[in-house]
Amino acid sequence: MTSKISRYARLRELISELTQEAAAGLPDRKARAALREARQASDEVDRLVQQLDPITRPQHVFYPSDPRITGLFVAMALVAQETLALGSLKVFYGSGVYALYYRGDFSPYGPICRTEHPIYIGKADPKDPQAGLPWDQGDKLFGRLKEHRSSIAKAKNLRVDDFRCRHLVVQSGFQNAAEGYLRSFFNPLWNGLGIGKHGDFASTRQNKKSVWDTLHPGRTWAGPSPEGKSEAEILSNVEAHFIAHHIYRSVNEIVDQFYLQLKQK
């Protein structure tokens, strides 16, 4: 026992010496090398502590402040809402998250048509990051949905009446975690395709067309811009996307998956 105690005492002395050395400053290359070794040693010490501790550590700990957990619960709340016709929305206060769903007959979107799988996930930040009450957040969430409604209405091969949405006003700051979780969970097709792209400036109009403007032409400012990808290439990518990602067809299926992600193994 004495020899073991002395070994641990020597270990503490060595850590103290290394700490003083680090505080005194090391050249960049030596500092990076020391950091790698310190991290490896830290992992090894932690494993040793676990072996010595007679009480088992929990494999999972529920942290409500974890952005992923926050995002999951906001996602559950969003999915619990009824879908609404995108074209029927009237102005309302609040910022938060939303999802768009397709119910039309544009054949490339057939795999998700009339399912509970969103074609787009988005968020709206409050006009004031410190805003608490919805009327202090402004009408930002409605504004984002209105922008999408306008882009869809201008598309020559889409109809606003074929879209429904869910939206949820959330406490300022929580919209970021919620959007991140929802996008990771659903992998919506339209995220990143350019539906939210604006053409307000000449420099923007000189860019290549977004995937959205090639597949769903109609926004006049995008007309003169050269195509970034051909329509055939885009349609091939759309088909590959639906093959690569699971499609959620019912709310119950989504809720079951949320439950599994919460369950500790």
Notable characteristics:
single chain, 265 residues, alpha+beta, 2 domains, 4-stranded antiparallel β-sheet, 10 helices, 4 strands, 48% helix, 8% strand, elongated
Could you describe the 3D structure shown?
The protein has helices at residues 2-24, 28-52, 67-79, 134-137, 140-154, 174-186, 202-205, 211-215, 231-244, 251-262; strands at 84-85, 96-102, 120-124, 163-169. By secondary structure, it is α+β, with helices and mostly antiparallel strands. The chain folds into two domains: 2-52; 67-262, no CATH class. The protein has a four-stranded antiparallel sheet. The radius of gyration is 26 Å and the shape is elongated. The mean pLDDT is 88.
What's a quick, concise take on this entry?
The chain is an alpha+beta fold. Helices cover 48% and strands 8% of the residues.
Give a count of the beta strands, DSSP E runs of length 2 or more.
4
Output the radius of gyration.
Answer: 26 Å
Distance from N terminus to C terminus (CA atoms, Å) equals: 37 Å
Strand coverage percent? 5-15%
Shape: elongated
**Spatial sequence of strands, sheet with the most strands:** 1-4-2-3
Average of pLDDT: 88
Helix proportion of residues, in percent? 40-55%
* Largest sheet properties: 4 strands, antiparallel
Order of helices and strands: HHHEEEHHEHHHHH
Low-pLDDT residue intervals, each spanning 5 or more residues = none
Tally of structural domains: 2
Please tally the helical runs, counting DSSP H or I stretches of 4 or more residues: 10
Category by helix and strand content? alpha+beta
